[in-house]
Amino acid sequence: MAKRLFATEVGAPEGPVCLADGAMYVTEMSGAKLCITAIDKAGHKQVIRKTNGRPNGLTTDGHGRLWIAEAGLRALICMDDKGNEIRRLEGSAEFPFYFPNDLCFGPNGLLYMTDSGMRVEDFLNGQEFYDGYRQFDWDGRVYEIDPVAMKILRVIDRKILFTNGIAFGPDNMLYANASFTGEVYRYDVLGQKEPKREVFGNVLQPFEGDDFRGPDGMAFGTDGRLYCTVYGQQNVTVLDSKGNVAERLPLDGPNPTNCAFTLTGHKLRVTEVGKGQVEELDVPCDGLPLHQPKFA
Questions:
Q1: Closest CA to 240 of 216, 257, 223, 261
Q2: CB-based burial, 121-160: b 16+ in 10 Å, e otherwise
Q3: Could you give the domains of the chain?
Q4: Cα torsion for 278, 165, 25, 61, to the nearest 10°?
């Protein structure tokens, strides 16, 4: 498997979105950056907007607008491709956002977002966890959001141990993972009024110690497999359609945070915070097309 560096000197990157011309967007979570950045196909970077919070997950809609899970500001933010804010949601009175993490649109045009379940300042010191973080009172959630009315429609799940990556599969089921357990969950959000959590698979390798390792961002390929970055494990773990580990794709950097397929060429781009870079892997398929609805 060939791999290469697509971009370097990126400040704790996350939220990769690949574009048709070979460019991409990322978020930069490091304290010195805290911004949304465009990277052209030659690896040159341009800041779209500094949010000064901690921008994490990122996706786009059918108008090319950017939707950001802003963990530091505890908000879902929509902006145009010039960085002008269009709308914002900070949760509701009953369910305020704590740590918006990752997000994706569904085939029904609604937006689905994970919330890791605790304010960033209560468990992180920069990029490092506070001691005893696993015993904190985590309330990780999965939200269904109306992106037009900008309101929460349903809390799909809660009390997850650090909810993180999220993606729709070829079966139109919603997949989300829990970083502390390594589990990937599956939900029938289109067919059930109260979707039940189903364990689909687990991406962790056996290890000793208390260093943090866990699933992060993920994406489906047209081969029907789920490509999941595993922070601290230095690989992308690939689950087959039954949830079994099919292979592990080794990386250059130890702490991958997310991945996105290029729109042509059978390549997977991986954001990695340990070395501050975007890696590019050759893979056997294209990515499953993302849902990018158009709406006012």
A1: 223
A2: eebbeeeebeeebeeeebbbbbbbbebeeeebeeebbbeb
A3: 14-209 (2.120.10.30)
A4: 160
Strand order in the sheet with 85-89: 55-60, 66-70, 75-79, 85-89
- The pairing of beta strand 198-202 with beta strand 183-187: antiparallel
Distance, in Å, from the CA atom of 117 to the CA atom of 160, rounded to the nearest integer, reads 8
What CA–CA distance (Å, rounded) separates 36 from 46? 9
Nearest to 143 by CA among 125, 123, 116, 119: 116
Rounded CA-CA distance 261/266 in Å is 7
pTM equals 0.97
Each residue's pLDDT expressed in tens, for the chain with a length of 296 residues: 678 999 999 999 999 999 999 999 999 999 999 999 999 999 999 999 999 999 999 999 999 999 999 999 999 999 999 999 999 999 999 999 999 999 999 999 999 999 999 998 999 887 788 999 989 999 999 999 999 999 999 999 999 999 999 999 999 999 999 999 999 999 999 999 999 999 999 999 998 777 889 999 999 999 999 999 999 999 999 999 999 999 999 999 999 999 999 999 999 999 999 999 999 999 999 999 999 999 99
Cα separation, 111 vs 71, in Å, equals 17
With CA atoms as reference, report the closest residue to 182 among 165, 196, 158: 165
For residue 242, the one-letter residue type is: K
d(CA 31, CA 53): 9
Alpha-carbon distance of 93 to 132, in angstroms, equals: 29
> At 238, which amino acid appears?
V
105, β-bridge pairs: 111
**Which amino acid is present at 146?**
D
